[in-house]
């Protein structure tokens, strides 16, 4: 750029390079950002639902034709309820209660009240995989990529501060937004953790 002062030329070159790197990191980390966003939303609401498993509960009364005196007819009970799962074990929790295990599912029997509670567990495989990545359960090589992602996010956060100049940049609207983004977590830390 002929006739431009060197500081202006450096500033334009620096901002262009920063913008290119910011853009490329954004593209590269697109998938990770989506995975962490979905997993973060799921885990944030863990009090409302189980993000890893879909748990369905069915309750009812046992067939009156079943004899519950003597040894418990586990297979007949499971079939009378309409379960096709194979019995993998059972345990007696007290005098009138039995827990029957059917793979990942379970069937609780109350012989006194002649009631049952069936709990069917199905893995939310994609969400469970996202959560395992987010919570770093894989360890090994994943730690390095995850650390690289964290450093990349740090770079994108800092570089984003310098992409714009003027009233939309750090000295104007961008500065106020950055300040709000820093203050909100500190307010929550102060209110709830101190």
UniProtKB/TrEMBL annotation:
Transmembrane segments annotated in the record for this chain: 25-43, 142-163, 175-193
Highest rank taxon of the organism: Bacteria
Residues making up the signal peptide according to the UniProt record: none
Classification via Pfam families: PepSY_TM_like_2 (PF16357)
Keywords: Membrane, Transmembrane, Transmembrane helix
PANTHER family on file: INNER MEMBRANE PROTEIN WITH PEPSY TM HELIX
Name of the protein described by the UniProt record: Peptidase
Source species: Caldithrix abyssi
């Amino acid at each position: 750029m002929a006739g431009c002062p060197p500081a202006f030329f450096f500033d334009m070159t620096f901002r262009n390079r920063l913008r290119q790197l910011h853009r490329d990191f954004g593209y590269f980390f697109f998938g990770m950002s989506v995975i962490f966003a979905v997993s973060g939303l799921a885990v944030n609401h863990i009090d409302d639902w189980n993000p890893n498993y879909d748990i369905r509960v069915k309750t009812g009364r046992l067939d009156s034709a079943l004899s519950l005196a003597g040894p418990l007819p586990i297979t007949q009970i499971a079939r009378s309820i309409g379960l096709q799962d194979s019995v993998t074990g059972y345990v007696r929790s007290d005098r009138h209660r039995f827990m029957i295990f059917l793979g990942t599912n379970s069937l609780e029997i109350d012989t006194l009240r002649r009631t049952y509670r069936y709990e069917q567990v199905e893995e939310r495989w994609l969400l469970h995989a996202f959560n395992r990545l987010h919570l770093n359960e894989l360890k090994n090589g994943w730690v390095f990529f995850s650390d690289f992602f964290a450093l990349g996010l740090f770079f994108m956060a800092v570089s984003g501060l310098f992409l714009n100049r003027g009233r939309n940049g750090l000295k104007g609207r961008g500065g106020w937004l950055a300040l709000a983004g820093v203050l909100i977590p500190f307010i929550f830390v102060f209110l709830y953790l101190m």
